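JOB MANIFEST
job_type = single_chain_structure
chain_count = 1
residues = 396
[input]
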Amino acid sequence: MKAGEGITLGESLRPRSNSLNLIRLLLAASVVLSHAPLGGFGSELFLRWTTIGSLAVYCFFGISGYLIAGSAESNNFGRFLWHRVLRIFPAFWICLIVTAFVFGWLGWLHAGHGCGFACYLHEPGGPVDYVVHNAWLRSSQLTIPGTLKGIPFPLAWNGSIWTLFYEFLCYLLLGALALVGALRNRFLVAAIAVAVLVLECVVTSVPSLNMQFNAFNNWDLANLLRFVPVFLTGAAIYLYRKEIPDSGWLALCSLAATFAVYLVPVGNGIPGLTLTRADLSAFLLVYPTLWLGAHLPGRSIGVPNDYSYGLYIYAFPVAQLLAVWGACRWGYAPYVALTLVGAATLAFASWWLIEKRFLRLRDLGRSSSGGQIPLASVVPVQPTQVDSTPTTGLPT
């Protein structure tokens, strides 16, 4: 269906025929480009106030808000939460294990430590601690001692997964709104999004407040101010999808307004560490992203096999391991290409061996006739309906 007068975004962005999976795959790949500084290839700043990776994460959150609103609307809280856990945690846990016991071990060997695997295993802050401390999405242990020796940025083995914690909080927020019936009042959802955005504007614009919401103070609140308006914008667009027009001009104007905000003299901070003017305009990226999902070709790419999540969670550790091995000395293009190949291989394995298998458990608790069967002894939630909503996979 072509864009035109009288056609809404909901009509064009059909659930079974859109390019959102393709967009998410491209966004995950762009995060790889954004992490090129891991190899010592200079700054990734984009228009001074943000990064390509940050823009990709914002688009991820917008898509996620749109898709997850549909899941929250059509499922009770138990099944909604069960689906979200299945989509996020199994592949995430395996990624932690692979990072700790394979990538970290290879880094340990390359660093020339005199003792073997048993020594590595029992190192204080070693692989076991890395998995345990990060298991619930919060990145409380970034690296493993002695495994990232001699590379430009040895601060983290996986600097992408931190966004998943805030994504899951957004899931819980939307699930809670559905639980109390707030999703049936779409104006209320839009009002909450506007209220959080206004609060973000105030914090960003007042220098004394901006200094209190950053990587060193109130980090969680700063990130919720950054991500919640974008996520809820996607959710509000879903709820108003039958009234919002499908308009290329609206998408173009929204994109232009995004970068026009960069000229507003507020938020003189450091991208990624403090709130900047780019964070204020991030919600404006949501409509253009969804509009592209309705009109780009490649609707069959990533359907039904979604590799974007695996690409997102594995790209950073692959890039770090390549940097440890010195692959960055071959130049930017080979380094990025090798990162993409390695991450894509692991993403393929993650989907087929982990993600797809666990997603089959979405039907747990439903009888063959569509009714419920007791689940008290099987899982801690009570599913009621199946959905196939994917995770955004990012961050970002």
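[summary]
Residues 368-396 have pLDDT under 50 and may be disordered.
The chain has 15 helices and two strands.
exit_status = 0
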